[in-house]
Design brief:
single chain, mainly alpha, 199 residues, 80% helix
Length: 199
């Protein structure tokens, strides 16, 4: 409603006609035919042009206000008058609308701030989770490395025990063979063989 009032009061400024261009066209079209008295045909037009140029200044030689400026001032005056005559109920309605819009803007701003805060919290949680995941991966890698070292050490110990057992078994076999070879029975057999064979 306010926009229709402002448009109806302000109106559209009319462009100012350019008199100088039309006068110049008249001079160009009629300047070739002389008057019977010897004076050029455009003498009267020149007089009109001079009078129009003089009328654009006031008596003191100060340039007059252009028509466009006058129209603008008049439109501003009418617009201000229309604004002053707006009903109080319309003003109150506009103020209420502005207050509601400001309240909605405040609520929207608070929601945006709340969402930004939640986003920051979620981002911090995500960063903390990534840090914990990296620590868990490092701990797993360290544990796997320790297990590999332990398995390697166990294999070395196993190989050492196997070698020791083999040496012990070899020593036992050699001892048993020596005991059997140098025992009483084998000594008697060797003695009787020597006696029979005469060796």
């Amino acid at each position: 409603m306010t926009d229709r009032i402002l448009e109806s009061v302000a109106g559209t400024p009319q462009p100012t006609p350019v008199i100088a261009e039309e006068t110049e066209q008249i001079l160009n079209t009629r300047g070739s035919t002389p008057c019977p008295g010897g004076a050029p045909a455009n003498a009267n037009a020149l007089g009109v042009l001079e009078n129009s140029q003089i009328s654009e200044h006031d008596a003191d030689g100060i340039p007059a206000t252009p028509w466009s400026e006058l129209n603008r001032r008049e439109n501003d005056r009418k617009l201000q008058a229309a604004i002053d005559h707006i009903p109080e109920s319309e003003v109150n309605r506009l103020r209420s609308s502005i207050a509601r819009l400001q309240e909605k803007l405040g609520v929207s701003t608070a929601m945006v701030h709340n969402l930004q805060t939640r986003n920051a919290i979620h981002q911090a949680d995500a960063d903390r989770g990534e840090a914990q995941l990296r620590q868990a991966k490092e701990a797993r890698d360290n544990a796997l490395a320790r297990v590999a070292d332990t398995a390697k050490s166990s294999n070395q110990v196993k190989d050492s025990l196997t070698s020791l057992i083999c040496l012990i078994l070899a020593a036992i076999f050699l001892y048993a063979y020596a005991c059997h070879y140098y025992g009483p029975e084998m000594s008697y057999i060797r003695k009787r063989r020597s006696e029979v064979l005469g060796v």
